[in-house]
Amino acid sequence: MKHFLSINDCSTKDLNALLDLSASLKKLYKSGKRDLCLAGKVLAMLFEKPSLRTRISFHVAMTDLGGSAIYVKPEDIGGIGKREPIKDMARVLSRYVDGIMARTFEHRVVVELAQFATVPVINALTDWSHPCQAMADVLTIKEHLSRLKGVKVAYVGDGNNVARSLAFAAAKLAMKLVVASPKGYELDKETIKTANRISADSVSQVNEPKKAVDGADIIYTDTWTSMGQEDEKKKRIKAFKDFQVNAKLVKLAGSNVKIMHCLPAYRGLEITDEVVESKNSIILDQSENRLHFQRALLKKLLS
Ligand code: CP
Ligand code: NVA
């Protein structure tokens, strides 16, 4: 594993090793000890979009491991691929830093960075995928259910970057993902085909939230309007109106179901405040685990 761009590029063995390392580093840090394996190392963090969790948790993870991080906004450097070609940026940065993480609109930007960088490149969310999120999610599921095999995740909402990374995670780690989306907003057929080629029947798509949550261990949702789609917000609110994760829908899955959301959450749209704050919600554990997973990822790629 040189880069971390998409979960479907990784082997099940590597993913499980990352989960184990996340758990052991989490335990170590909770006990007040530290692992300074990245002393003197620097991570460049390029962000074309806003971020709370990803930015801060990566920065803290680098600091925790003895290294440091530099936050770069596109306007500071004249845009990614605008002031100079991506290949020059990737090669120059590789002479200064030990790793590059990037949050971009187009997925091909992180792919091109990785193609030309001689240091590891990490996908911190693109329009196509959000692999760090999905791995933190899986870590959270494992902690709460003590297993991954056969866990049924019902993803209710947009077939977006988060749903796609969850699909690859389900396929690689023996979970079942059922995505419920309105017509026209489903997970693309190619992703479903790829996931099911990795592991037969791991991912399916329906248009009925009720169908998806039946027998689910987890109900997961994300915003209906991702970063960059703000112009479509009105249209999307209309299209997704029957796809809200609310108490009525949660009840259909039974009292033990866990609720997940990658955050930020738009209460009253994709999820109600009541459900976010309910005892079934493991949303804050999920956010916390971004830090624990990313510590492991940075240690694996940069040390
Ligand atoms: N979940 C997530 O990636 O949050 P941020 O956009 O705040 O980084
Ligand atoms: N799908 C959302 C995830 C935010 C963490 C987006 O891309 O905006």
Can you list the ligands bound to this structure? phosphoric acid mono(formamide)ester, norvaline
Distance from N terminus to C terminus (CA atoms, Å) equals 13 Å
**What is the CATH C-level name of the largest domain?**
Alpha Beta
Number of helices: 12
Main attributes of the structure:
binds norvaline; alpha/beta; 2 domains; 44% helix; four-stranded parallel β-sheet; binds phosphoric acid mono(formamide)ester; Rossmann fold; 14% strand; 9 strands; five-stranded parallel β-sheet; globular; 303 residues
Write the layout of secondary structure elements.
Layout: H1 12-30, E1 42-47, H2 53-64, E2 68-72, H3 86-96, E3 99-103, H4 107-116, E4 121-123, H5 131-145, E5 152-156, H6 161-172, E6 176-180, H7 189-198, E7 203-206, H8 209-213, E8 218-221, H9 233-239, H10 247-253, E9 258-261, H11 273-276, H12 283-302
Parallel strand pairs: 1-2, 1-3, 3-4, 5-6, 5-8, 6-7, 8-9
What does the model show?
The chain is α/β, with parallel strands linked by helices and 303 residues long. It folds into two domains: 7-130 and 289-302, Aspartate/ornithine carbamoyltransferase (Rossmann fold, 3-Layer(aba) Sandwich), CATH 3.40.50.1370; 133-286, Rossmann fold, CATH 3.40.50.1370. It is built from twelve helices and nine strands. It has helices spanning 12-30, 53-64, 86-96, 107-116, 131-145, 161-172, 189-198, 209-213, 233-239, 247-253, 273-276, 283-302; strands at residues 42-47, 68-72, 99-103, 121-123, 152-156, 176-180, 203-206, 218-221, 258-261. The strands form two sheets. It has a five-stranded parallel sheet. Helix 6 (161-172) packs parallel to helix 7. It is globular and about 55 Å long. 48% of the residues are buried. The mean pLDDT is 98. The site of norvaline has 9 residues, from helix 6. The site of norvaline (NVA) has 9 residues, from helix 6.
